[in-house]
Design goal:
five-stranded parallel β-sheet, 25 strands, single chain, five-stranded antiparallel β-sheet, extended, alpha+beta
Length: 687
Amino acid sequence: MNKNQPVVLVIDDESAIRDMIKFALEQAGMRVQSAANAHQALLAVSERRPDMILMDWMMPGVSGIELTRRLRKDSFSKDIPIIMLTARVTEDDKVAGLEAGTDDFVIKPFSPRELIARIRAVLRRSSPLDASGQLTLGKLTLDTIARRIMHNSVEIQMGPTEYRLLEFFMTHAGRSYSRTQLLDHVWGTNAYLEERTVDVHIRRLRKALEPFGSSHYLQTIRGHGYRFLIEQLPFPVSRVLFPPHEDRLDPGPLRRMPVRNWKFHIGRLILIAGIILALGWLAGYPGKALALALAAYTGWHVVNGWRLFRWLQGSENAIPESFGLWADIFDTINSLAQRNRMQQEQYRAIIGEFHSLTDAFPDATLVIDENDQITWFNNAASSLLGLKLPEDLGQAVTNLLRGPDFADWLAIQGEVKSRLEMPSPRSDTTWLTVSAVSFRDKQRLIILGDISDVHQVEQIRRDFVENISHELRTPLTVLLGYLELLRQDPPDEMSNALERMQDQALQMQSMLNDLLELSRLQSDEIRKDEEIVNIPTILTRLKEQAEELSRGKHELVFDVDASLYLSGIAPDIESALRNLITNALKYTPPGGTVSVNWSDTPEGPLLTVSDSGIGIPKREIPRLTERFYRVGSDRARQSGGTGLGLSIVKHVLNAHHASLLIHSELGEGSEFICTFPPERKRSKPDS
């Protein structure tokens, strides 16, 4: 076998998938290693470093994402390309995988030809060096065999650490790395150094590259770290999109104010008074001369004050001219006026830019003042909402966007940040999402986006789930009926198989029931047939069901305020409480405790379901209420979970304007806290 063939490590807990991939890759001229779990994979990597890893996401014990993080932390395996094989296709899943360190995704079921093509593409990207071990970027050439850096055939002298740093940058050009990442990649995870060490060696490396005109390739990313980039724009992008104000404005020449202060003017006044007094003394009339000079000086001030007053009133276009103190005053006022005009021009230019940018937005954008009156809107608002200029300026936004939901939402936006989905005022088939942003003083920016396509897809999804659930119930009923008949007197060799088939069919039936319940809740979240719900009676009934499910294996503690009732929809609330209590029992080992507390608090009626079970990893808690999301799918399958229970709980609580808070620690149990609004509190009705 050719030693230059790439070695691919396939990690999957399904042997059939491993065998199929191995056959396909060997036919494509690759060598294949196999591993069924993370432990076997780590042993295989330590024995022989593969050129590529194909890894399943969902594996028992350590998942593919966790194994990827471990491999990326080890200096020996941190650069091995990893392709994730998964049936998870959401954007959040892909982001989580890429952030963990995977290089590509292949979605199950996949074509072997596509898989081979992706492997070869990733291998090409992960090895920028040519066959001679050299890489040329710009005028720099990296020679990994001779371990040197050349600039137009001239070797650049640098230390070994600087060489390793530049080698890493050149083989990962264009990517930005933090100081911590550079320490891990260049110095290794076992080196305990301060982040300032990176800065010191970056300066040394730039100093070595500076004589060759290549130091600018090492760019500093403010607040993050560094990157190596050969191709640069000849000018900053920000200057193209937003040129500085001084480039846009030409205010004309300014009348420069003489650099003089009050001491100069007082000194000159004393000098002139002295000269007049001396001339008057020579003429024999010093008092009269001083009085005439004072009268003339006062008249000069009056005349200049009157000229300034007329100019400020707008009677004169040009600033008055004078001499002495008044010349400085006129120049100062003129300079301030011109600066004010410049600032106004700048503000108008900024507002013009803002209007141009928002007019380019596909979303409708409105500016409203503190009285909720429209002060401006863009072109998209005209087409999407039917607003007209200038008739609708100054109108209250609630007069143009009618509806109690929008008015209620707008009233609380100063205190609560939330989004609203509502039908368009122009068409019932168009749906909008509305958000508010504080804008300048006491103004708000209202942004409305068209989500009709998303709303329609969501409705189609709901209809599909509901229809397929109904359609599957008929064959499932037939299947369960025959299985029950066959189990009455089964052959000995078929007894175990029939029992397994019935267990799987019952689990499928449970999933269909949950799907139908969730579909009903999603399409009927706002119901008007609310009533006073007897929560104590519901919890008593659920306690009896929990005792039957536990069969004495758990300690059940129910602390219920018998006088505390709730306004709501009784079947929905009972469904939510049943899911919380059932989940607590499923994930609490025998001998553990499940506690339920129903009490009144200043924040509103509070239901707490806690257990001493296996707990939940903190990183999984934000996703618990997603449809079909299960923590550890292997253990969820063993317990019969469908991944829909907490999603049902979330929709019930949302419909009742309640909140769900989850606290959990691995090995220490979990606590689910449901807080209902105080206005839903009801007392026990009189009998």
